[in-house]
């Protein structure tokens, strides 16, 4: 059943995305690009939160780190997109490791609170390190993506962007799929289900947590680079706590632990607000309602491996017991 | 349990001397005291929690090929001693040695990788994973398990994990439900799944923490037969149990704890007749 659901939903999705991309309106094209970027971002959050069970509440900030890394490397150092893209991933992963190293020793809900703090710290840094980031003014005129030979084929710059973003999205999804649908992925799931037990089975959980976080940050950075180069302008406002929660909602609606679910959740919550634009500011109420109803009636999301509420509840319950275990 | 304990008559209790004779006769092949290569040695292991001495200077050893039972009434310190061995709680003093190597400062996963597998007293399977995936985690723990091996060079590793997992599932009789979610299994099967997961790590020493808890008589008998087969296949087993029945019927040697101290360490026949053991379990004759 779930298998078939996967196939139909993915098919529906491809139709939506292709439809948006083919549309001869640059607004719809932009929606398609944003949706694909959010697919990568949601999948990266799902990797660390849904598969490895580490609830991260500051993911948008890592998205921002990637965006700033790409923006600065291209505007100040003149790098092209194909170099800033991997660089943004690596820089974000490195920063993720550095800030996460002290928090890796925290368990369950304490880790979630720490990521919340890290997210705010990164946001405030983007906002106030005016010398580097130009603060609230943001960075403008970030060069668009260029594909070799695009001119010869007569592709417009929007088409080039869509194509490049689609390629990077597919490659990212493939990589995360390989990582999570393997025995390595099983060790991540063991971490989510019961970390002390995984430890007793011979799995180095401290190392595994760090790896999961680094991989997740890498792809958040990739998404950030896509964002910077396709919008041409970034400012700290796009990387606040609210965005982290939006991305988390996408992962939860699709189903924690399911890569397909993340794709679907990202499409639903990216396209829905655009489709409801006529409702004006009321549209966010509808979005909130969708989230609320999905938690109520689909506790595992559409395709999830674990119930989001269970995950949080379990972490809350385990917290005091784990507090007594101070050895690592 | 009561039936087993009722067996030694009053005369047997008073003449402890006969036990030495019995033990020498019945345990020539598996004598605890002549074990050539002790796998695990506990040397004066003590663990204090604040003012409470949970484990008080316990020394014993587990030799290769033995099936040792660790028993004691509730609160005797069995689980704490277990945790000292598996690295969950470090001993306050004393030493745990594995093949002569001290385990001090090692984390649970490092100890597991040395070849000490374990199960948990209160079932700790991974409920949202399939039976096969649960078992695979035990095998993954013995492999390098690096993320890049999922892209290149990990084929042999994955093949080893698959092969071991399938073989262990066959061994415990769960092959037919390999694709089921672990949460959907019956209690008895979940218990076997936990043992299977530990076995997938190819342990030289398997420590079972109250495997019979919550099982009915038939299931317990099956478990006893299974543990005997394990030992016949060459796995050394340390059985931590609250219930004496299972321990007395299958173990080659029994260590008894009471109030954190070791009060007996002998073949089952001798332990059954040990007055201190009987007192710890049933109270003194005056009390009874």
Structural class of chain B: alpha/beta
Number of domains of chain B: 2
The count of strands of chain A amounts to: 0
CATH topological fold name of the largest domain in chain B: Rossmann fold
- The string of secondary-structure elements of chain A, in order, is HHHHHHHHHHHHHHH
Please outline the helices and strands.
The complex is a heterodimer of chains A (328) and B (288).
Chain A lengths: L1 H21 L3 H26 L7 H17 L5 H20 L7 H21 L1 H4 L16 H4 L3 H24 L2 H11 L1 H6 L4 H27 L9 H14 L4 H17 L7 H15 L10 H16 L5
Helix pairs in contact in A: 1-2, 1-13, 2-8, 2-11, 2-12, 2-13, 3-4, 3-5, 3-11, 4-11, 8-11, 12-13
Chain B lengths: L1 H5 L3 H5 L2 H10 L11 E12 L2 E12 L3 E5 L6 H9 L6 E6 L2 E2 L5 H7 L1 E3 L12 H10 L14 H18 L14 H13 L5 E5 L7 H16 L3 E6 L2 H7 L2 E6 L2 E6 L1 H6 L1 H8 L6
Parallel strand pairs in B: 3-8, 3-9, 6-7, 7-8
Antiparallel strand pairs in B: 1-2, 1-4, 4-5, 9-10
